[in-house]
Amino acid sequence: MNSSSLTALPAWQALKAHAAVLAGQHMRDLFAADPDRFARLSFSFGPIRADYSKNRVTLETLSLLAELARARGVEAGRAAMFAGARINTTENRAVLHVALRNREERPMTVDGVDVMPEVRSTRARLKAFSDGVRNGQWRGATGKQLRHIVNIGIGGSHLGPMFVADAMKDLQAPEMSVTFVSNPDSAQLAEALAKLEPAETLFIICSKTFATAETTANADAARAWLTARLGETAVAKHFAAVSTNVEAAKTFGIHPDAVFPMWDWVGGRYSVWSAIGLSVILACGYEAFDQLLAGAEAMDRHFETASLEQNLPVILALIGVWYADFFDAPAVAVMPYDHRLKLFPFHLQQLDMESNGKAVTKDGAKVETKTGPIVFGGGGSDSQHSFFQLLHQGPRLIPCDFIIALKGAGGPSRDLLMANCLAQTEALLKGRTAAELASTPEALRPHREFPGNRPSNTLLLDELTPYVLGMLIALYEHKIFVQGLIWGVNSFDQWGVELGKELAKSLMPALLDKPAAAEGLLKARDSSTAGLALAYLQAKAQQ
Ligand code: F6P
Question: Residue 3: its pLDDT value, please?
Answer without folding.
Answer: 53
